[in-house]
């Protein structure tokens, strides 16, 4: 499977609770923090939920 580089670009202040929890479960929490995750259905669903707060790049293996 492909890998995704996920970077938080916006704050979670004044965002709904589910979006804050999704950011935390992705391993983010501060602006400019970057994580690398496998592109599976669960992660892609989380990315869709907080797409306006993050920047996603696909990494070729």
> Which strand-content bin applies to the residues?
25-35%
Q: What string gives the helices and strands in order?
A: EHEHE
Secondary structural class: alpha+beta
Terminal CA distance reads 9 Å
Which geometry do the CA atoms define? globular
Q: How would you describe what is shown here?
A:
The chain is an alpha+beta fold and 61 residues long. It has a single domain (3-59), classed as Ribosomal protein L30/L7 (Ribosomal Protein L30, Chain: A, 2-Layer Sandwich), CATH 3.30.1390.20. It contains 2 helices and 3 strands; from the N terminus they run βαβαβ. A 3-stranded antiparallel β-sheet has the order 2-1-3, with no helix packed on it. The longest helix has 9 residues, at 17-25. The protein is globular and about 35 Å long. The termini are close together. The mean pLDDT is 96.
């Amino acid at each position: 499977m492909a890998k995704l580089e996920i970077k938080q670009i916006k704050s979670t202040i004044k965002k709904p609770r589910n979006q804050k929890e999704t950011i935390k479960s992705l391993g983010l929490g501060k602006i400019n923090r970057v994580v690398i995750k496998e592109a599976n259905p669960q992660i892609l669903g989380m990315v869709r939920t907080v797409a306006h707060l993050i920047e996603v790049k696909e990494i070729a293996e």
